[in-house]
Amino acid sequence: MDLDLTRLKMLLELQQRGTVTRVAEVLSYSHSAVSQQLKTLERDTGFRLLERAGRNVRLTTQGQVLADYAGRIFALADEAEAALANSTDDVRGTLRVAGFQTVLAAATPSALDTLSARHPDLRVELTQRDIEEGVKGLASRGFDVVIGEDYPGVPQVPTEGFDVEVLWQDTMHLLFPRKGPYSELPRGLDALREAPLAVDPEAHVMGRWVRDLCRSAGFEPSVRYSTPDPFLQAHLVRGGHALALAPQLIIRDGVDGVDVIDLPGSPRRTLWTAVRAGAETHPAVMAFRQALAEQGPTG
């Protein structure tokens, strides 16, 4: 049996993504090309790997078995790549990193400066992605490292098949305007009973956490401005239009024109990096993780 790695990757992507359309989008193939390659894989194996499910397809039992083995094959390839890289003192090559806005904006530029000085032959490529999409891209080998975050009661850390390393914990704060009607409200979480809120959409982990925080305090927040952009949120507060919550990582570089208030219990988000299991000993991965961890906030 001659198994083609490209076809195995398509099968693994189908297991993870669920549709041929998504596989085609992620791997930059046409829908028909992916379908044809999967049919060829069926001929190569002599087994039916796919079956119809309405307008889509799903893996058969044999398809699931082969996709599981494909995951193990690619994990072993990561281990081999790490072993080869560790056989030399050089840290080089290209490292593809996916992350979300606050850490990319506030921490990675300094980390890149550090890496440029320590390892000039290492090229780091950054892509902004939601955490869920980043983890899917990591699983499909589109990225080498994903930066993510967890909030109290809203876990987001991937587990099976990944190596996860905590970067730091980041204290959350409440931002108040210094002008406008909301500037006169008592400084505390209860102000959100009366003031509009600028916050991430509920589909985002921070957006879910903020809403849960308000609901646990006995009220439903008035979300007037729904945006994942923390800088726009701060700008809306500065203009006197809303209140917002922000991490120390954003605040440390200066949030002008707003008052920064501690929250009860000093809740913290946890920032982490994830790589595919087997890749954690790769010199480029270890160098990037170390450089990024050194950029953590204080407070």
TrEMBL record:
<dbReference type="GO" id="GO:0003677">
    <property type="term" value="F:DNA binding"/>
</dbReference>
<keyword id="KW-0238">DNA-binding</keyword>
<comment type="similarity">
    <text>Belongs to the LysR transcriptional regulatory family.</text>
</comment>
<keyword id="KW-0804">Transcription</keyword>
<dbReference type="GO" id="GO:0032993">
    <property type="term" value="C:protein-DNA complex"/>
</dbReference>
<dbReference type="GO" id="GO:0003700">
    <property type="term" value="F:DNA-binding transcription factor activity"/>
</dbReference>
<dbReference type="InterPro" id="IPR036390">
    <property type="entry name" value="WH_DNA-bd_sf"/>
</dbReference>
<feature type="domain" description="HTH lysR-type">
    <location>
        <begin position="3"/>
        <end position="60"/>
    </location>
</feature>
<keyword id="KW-0805">Transcription regulation</keyword>
<dbReference type="InterPro" id="IPR000847">
    <property type="entry name" value="LysR_HTH_N"/>
</dbReference>
<keyword id="KW-0010">Activator</keyword>
<dbReference type="Pfam" id="PF03466">
    <property type="entry name" value="LysR_substrate"/>
</dbReference>
<dbReference type="InterPro" id="IPR036388">
    <property type="entry name" value="WH-like_DNA-bd_sf"/>
</dbReference>
<dbReference type="InterPro" id="IPR005119">
    <property type="entry name" value="LysR_subst-bd"/>
</dbReference>
<dbReference type="Pfam" id="PF00126">
    <property type="entry name" value="HTH_1"/>
</dbReference>
<protein>
    <submittedName>
        <fullName>HTH-type transcriptional regulator GltC</fullName>
    </submittedName>
</protein>
